[in-house]
Amino acid sequence: MMRSSLQPARAPGYLVRVAKPKPALAIDTVPASRSEIDLDNARELKWWTKRLACNEVQLREAVARVGPKAAHVEQLLDGVESILAV
């Protein structure tokens, strides 16, 4: 049998281990409250910066300016001048 040039030669009994990716758990990806931003929780801080497409400094400044309500912070970061009450 002819070996393809793309397949590496291996000694008999040689095992190849492939690391399996860990499944993402829903509890690890979503904050406890999607209506308020908790700046003291590093996991949630990372989630909110990704969700709102901003960095940590921008997020902290927005929360300091309009409070922890996610809708208000999102409006501020989107450039909406007047914050609508929710």
Whole-number mean pLDDT: 79
Q: Name the beta content range.
A: under 5%
The count of β-strands is 0
General form: elongated
The percentage helix is: 25-40%
Largest sheet: none
Structural class: mainly alpha
| Low-confidence regions | none
Rg is: 23 Å
What order do the SSEs take from the amino end to the carboxyl end, as H and E?
Answer: HHHH
List its traits.
0% strand; 86 residues; 38% helix; mainly alpha
Describe the structure.
It is built from four helices and no strands. With 86 residues, the chain is an all-alpha fold. It starts with 25 loop residues before the first helix and ends in a 9-residue tail after the last helix. The mean pLDDT is 79. The protein has helices at residues 26-29, 42-51, 56-66, 70-77. It has a domain at 32-77. 7% of the residues are buried.
How are the secondary structure elements laid out?
Layout: H1 26-29, H2 42-51, H3 56-66, H4 70-77
Short overview:
This protein has helices spanning 26-29, 42-51, 56-66, 70-77.
